[in-house]
Amino acid sequence: MIQYFISNKLESENENKTGLFVSFIKQIKGWNTDKSFKTANFTILLIRSGSIEFEMNDRIQEFTAQELVLVPKDTNYRVISIDEQFQACIMAFSWEYVVKEHLIVHQELFFHFLNSVNYSSVSLDTADFKLMLSLFKVIYLKNKTAVHPVNNGESTHHTITLFLHEIRILYTKYQKSDIIFSRTRKGLLVSQFLSQINIHCKEQHSVEFFANALCVTPAHLNKIVKKITHRNAKDLISEALITKAKELLENPEITIVDIADELEFSNASSFSTFFKKRTALSPSEYRSKIK
Q1: 188: domain range?
Q2: Considering only Cβ atoms within 10 Å of each terminal Cβ, which end of the chain, N or C, has fewer?
Q3: Residues 233, 192 share a domain
Q4: Strand pairing partners for 37?
Q5: Are residues 45 and 161 in the same domain?
Q6: Residue 29 is part of a domain; what is its CATH number?
């Protein structure tokens, strides 16, 4: 199972077709220790018991109970051996899911995934292990019971956001450093851009503003951003703005006119056009669906 969901695209295979797969591995079946694979998804493993030994990108590593493992997309790997007591939680994100949920903009963890060529891991104490296990279970249940596409989707998104935030905290705690391990100059520029988006996107919507803030040309910024994230700079700004808009729409006390004003749109009509173009719902329709 682990090989299938790490190495195959999730969009058509996952039963609710969200591009997010969460499962609990309790039995060792069909493990191929002879064949090498390449990860097609961004993958997070939490080892519950026993151990597993991988060869990843020509590096051999054994992972044991209470270890949290991050595996970037396009990692070459082979399962070498598995303990009989091995059990684990697995979460895999397709690229489409990462884009749809705007995780590049709001989650530094996914920037690490995009900008890293190697896996990384930390060994958790019992309290932190139990916390991560609980979050895995919550996300598993939310993802499995996708009944209302808007309500459930927003709820799952918030839980995923919390989950990824906790992972970053854990890496900072156990590694005594931020989750960003190796950073190229281009990677640093994109990280600074994403940080600036989160600070200023409500009032600044142009690539030119962020390029000036980072002392580069708009063309250079867009080129580097697209190379690393596979999205152009304007798309990432828009994605951040949509997320801010959704947060405001969740508060029924704020009118759509006020939201348009707060987000620096010229009027409510231009805001509605922008929102519907990117969500297929008008602000009013979105608000009514999340009640």
Answers
A1: 183-288
A2: C
A3: yes
A4: 77
A5: yes
A6: 2.60.120.10
Write the pLDDT tens digit of every residue in 86-138: 999 999 988 777 777 767 665 666 666 666 666 788 999 999 999 999 999 99
Phi-psi region of 81 (alpha: psi -120 to 50; beta: other; left: phi over 0): beta
Long-range contacts of 144-149 (CB under 8 A, 24+ apart): 144/16, 144/22, 146/16, 146/18, 148/289
Farthest CA pair distance, the chain? 63
Token pair 């006020």: residue:
258
Q: For the residues 179-201, what does the mean pLDDT come to? A: 76
- Tell me which residue has tokens 């994605």: 239
Rounded to the nearest 10 degrees, the angle between the axes of helix 108-115 and helix 185-200 is: 160
Residue 213 is part of a domain; what is its CATH number? 1.10.10.60
Q: How far is CA 10 from the centre of its chain?
A: 15
Distance CA 235, CA 29 (A): 42
pLDDT in tens, 78-95: 888 888 899 999 999 887
